[in-house]
Amino acid sequence: MPNPIHLEVNGKQYAVQYDPQTPLLAVLHDELNLTGTKYGCGEGQCGSCTIILDGSPRRSCQIPLIEAMGSRITTIEGLEKDGQLHPLQEAFLEAGAFQCAYCTSGMIMSSVALLQKNPDPNPMEIAQFLQGNICRCGTHLRIIDAVRRAAKSLQERAR
Amino acid sequence: MRSPSEKFIPEPERYEFSAGPFHHFELARRQFFQLLGAGIAIFAVAKDSLVAQETGPARAFHGEELPKEIGAWLHIGEDGRVTAFVGKTEMGQNIRTSLAQTVADELRVPFDSVTMVMGDTALTPWDAGTFGSRTTPTMSPQFRRIAAAARELLIAEAAKGWNVSAGALVARDAKVSNPATGRSLSYAELAKNKSLAKILPADEHVTSPNQWTVAGTSIPKADARSCVTGRHQYTSDLHRPGMLFGKVLRPPSFNATLTSYDDTGAKSLPGVTIVRDGDFVAAAAPTEREALAALAALQVQWKEVPQISSRELFSYLKQNASSKSNSDHQNQEGSIEKGLEGAAHRLDASYTIAFIAHTPLEPRAALAEWSEGKLTVWTGTQRPFATRDELANVFHIPASSVRVIVPDTGSAYGGKHTSDAALEAARLARAAGYPVRVVWTREEEFTWAYFRPAGVIEIKSALDADGKLTAWEFHNYNSGSSGIETPYVVPNKHTEFHPVPLVLRSGSYRGLAATANHFARESHMDALAHAAGVDPLEFRLKNLSDPRMRAVLEAGAKSFGWPQKKSHEGQGFGLAAGYEKGSYVSTFAEVAVERASGNVRVVRLVTAFECGAIVNPDGLRNQVIGANIQGLGGALFEAIEFDSGRIRNSHLTGYRVPRFRDIPQIETVLLDRKDLPSAGAGETPIMAVAPAIGNALFDASGVRLNHMPLVPNGLKS
């Protein structure tokens, strides 16, 4: 029986018994029932599984469980605080920035990381940063609009 | 021109369908009210010939079966909650919202009080499947009629209670009021303690689009909040107690057969169930990793068969076309010979279209659970009732013992008509004795699903000295007959579709063969315009008589600014237009070609679209832009490469799809025709993208590209 691996996800501590090479995505999605992070390709090419690990956006399908041990992980479920949505979540809603919405968690998490790095990105910078996130339904323009709205909203709050 | 409500005939390229019997759903009326509680229910009959039946409260629901040809139903509860039921499925096209708007509008209730129950074979009426842009033209009218009937029933109840004539009363804001007395009763109060059922097909007077209040507005997507919080559960997110994870052993190539099999190493692994059924081999285990390890522990050998490669594809298609023409599509008018005689301009050309993959972001998935001989499967299928019947057949149980439930799914684009994952999960679940969830990998999705058919198209054409078409001969090999007929005026034409034995598993894709046929036709029309020295827009308008086609061309041209003078080297402008499934589209494109590198960039797209009366403008805009973006992929770089029965680019690294940096400036012009019935919009907007870009590339470089994809590796001069 392997030793339990300790994870911190959305501020909570978990101990999981899993093959240490299991992708973090599988553990989050199938074991911890945090199903907001999605499988799209398993190869780090589509961005559906994006989470934030120690402040950086990462594709959780490419992180073996053992590497995530000791790190602070935030998933889409961790954005909402006491029923209050994160400004990016609000912005995606206002902009209607989803159709089938399967890419949405990954888009939002990548965007959270973008705005932490660059609080006022222009559309080209947003497109560049989100190049690794696929939206097959073609909602890109509204996603860019949502990120712009959230950037504005966050800047207004900061004043 | 066919109207949207005409009988739907499946196109030949829907190879993945089998012509099954027309099954009907039987939910006893008593069960219906038991499930939903007392209230008022209205059922719409799909066929128009049945006689309306009124039922009184005394015997409304005691053990009576419902008539079989029911297309939709609606329930108003004692709490005022309105529930509408439909067998269609939500895949991101947002019909969940637009149908609810239609109900709310006609019933005169707030949008938020309407719940749609969709795609559940135990609760919703039978449905052929969610495809063909059919939902809006077929379900909107049915829901309008039943909502109108419900409204009249509520008014009649109030009239009875107040002992006044129904004509004196008004229904609005979920209540019936008498303007003369100021009295009103809410729908909830009127439904209290009643169990009334009414079956149409009465010709209820429905509200004309000019008076829509809820329909026709841009209401946000229903259940939107769960989409941004990660709470919405797709099939691949669902969990059942005791659930195992299933994985299927895939052969090394198509048509391979199992020649040796030894599962001793795999069977003994803890918690693992192995299933072998002919050439179907699969494992279920407590984790996905363990299921994969179990498959890896199998000792198997396969016999493979030689198959053609994508390099030989197009010559193969032409050489193997059926010598007997497909009687579903051959159309002849006038005489081609006559039309070609003495023509001022002649143009013959050949076009090729590659196989492409739908690439839905949620791969196909199913969760199957057996309980006392009954099977429940959650799966993202566009045809829940066909899946139900297939499962019933395969397991030799009655259809009434199978329930298929479709959660709102992570897209499909025509690619999720088959029941593969459902069958796999159900087989494993039966063997394991526990629920099993199967989720395909991206590689499996690229390999074991089905593709939009490849094709070869040959056109012979002629113009007279006035630049008018005199002959049009159009042959499509393999890809299909959707959109094969030209919308232009030609006195002599011959159109024919030639089926070819399947090379790769093929089936429906957004727009079907209309993407191929529009590409060929509109590229050819552009070449003809250049041959005649006529502006491409003028040329099309000159050869058209359809005012709706003219309208989208003129609207698109106005918004784009056509014609435009080039302002720098490598710039090009092109246009294309089409008609399909009751709606009209035109696309105008601006491209930029880097001469040295051959890099192509689509700078701007303007698409004008008209589909009758618009139900949700914002939802429609999303569909049009989404189809344009998806169309960029098929236009520019998507192509399946294969040989020896293997897909060579079965990963996102090898199969390029449009990403953020590929997105051009996109504008849409939506023409709202409130005087015309609403047509569907899921497919037509994709059709003019590829030819518009191809035509713009010709304008930029002088190179005429007759293949889809146009520039998978940039433009070589």
Task: Give a brief description.
The complex is a heterodimer of chains A (159) and B (717). Chain A is α+β, with helices and mostly antiparallel strands and 159 residues long. Chain A has 6 helices and 5 strands; from the N terminus they run ββαββαβαααα.
Write the layout of secondary structure elements.
The complex is a heterodimer of chains A (about 160) and B (about 725).
Chain A: E1 5-9, E2 12-16, H1 24-31, E3 50-53, E4 56-59, H2 65-68, E5 72-74, H3 87-95, H4 104-117, H5 123-129, H6 140-158
Parallel strand pairs in A: 1-5
Antiparallel strand pairs in A: 1-2, 3-4, 3-5
Helix pairs in contact in A: 3-6
Chain B: H1 29-36, E1 39-45, E2 53-54, E3 70-77, E4 82-86, H2 95-107, E5 114-118, H3 135-162, E6 170-172, E7 175-177, E8 184-186, H4 187-191, E9 195-199, H5 224-228, E10 244-248, E11 257-262, H6 264-267, E12 273-277, E13 280-285, H7 288-296, E14 299-303, H8 313-319, E15 330-333, H9 336-340, E16 345-353, E17 365-371, E18 374-379, H10 384-395, E19 402-405, H11 420-432, E20 436-439, H12 442-447, E21 455-463, E22 469-477, E23 493-498, H13 514-532, H14 536-542, H15 547-560, E24 571-580, E25 583-593, E26 600-610, H16 617-636, E27 642-643, E28 646-647, E29 665-671, H17 689-701, E30 707-708
Parallel strand pairs in B: 1-9, 4-5, 10-20, 16-30, 18-19, 22-23, 26-29
Antiparallel strand pairs in B: 1-3, 2-9, 3-4, 6-7, 7-8, 10-13, 11-14, 12-13, 15-23, 16-21, 17-18, 17-20, 21-22, 24-25, 25-26, 27-28
